[in-house]
Amino acid sequence: MSAANAPLLRVAGLAKTYTQRGGFIGANHIVHAFEDVSLSVEIGSTLAIVGESGAGKSSLARCLALLEHPDRGEIWHNGRNVAALSAADLAPFRREVQLIFQDSTSALNPRLSAVELIAEPLLIQRIGTPAHRRDRARELMRSVGLAPESANKCPLEFSGGQRQRIALARALALQPKLLILDEALSNLDVAHQDAMLNLLATLQAAHALAYIHISHDLRLVSQFAGEVAVMHKGKIVERAPAADLFARPQHAYTRELLAAMPPLETLLLERSA
Known about the structure:
With 273 residues, the protein is an alpha/beta fold.
């Protein structure tokens, strides 16, 4: 496959384990977060990874962004297996792949103002002058629906939905091609979820962004995903276009998840309330 036709990100045979210490007299215990995960995401597309808590989704998200290194497997980006690169060689990958966490309160440094938080990735990458970075941060605030006049406020002076917009603006500072959203909408109420989904769709159309949405909420997934991968006990058990998966689930676990999902009529009532 040529570089021009290659997926934006391709993962093959990825696995991650953690060692759980057993205390003074207990033996250490090996926990398999996920194993043999293979997937890909195209430019401008949206892949949802769904499953219950404990399925390994967040561990996978951190490894996809290389905040943690997998034990084995490959992560291909721009023709290179970035999982095998040293930290010093990862700068281009760090710019193009960004992760947004579920809890914006703990993810954002409370001592920094909104404009400082958004400009910080540019400072770390040594891009631009201080004035340029502040101007860019204010521009990003506007693009995610935040008033630049609130630029000097600290995170706790914003609502939860506004903090996630700050996190989104910060992730966009380096003009990435892929955003990984790890349950980034799950702490928001329905109105703020809808607003964020609309914003993400607008940004995707404008910048050909690709998204990997990590979620346990099939109600949300049904609204935004082009493709869905179902994760169960650390493995991808099914992957299909969203319309096919919701209409004709193949795996028993997928059918179980869908059976627990409220009917469409209930979802429409919730969203119109």
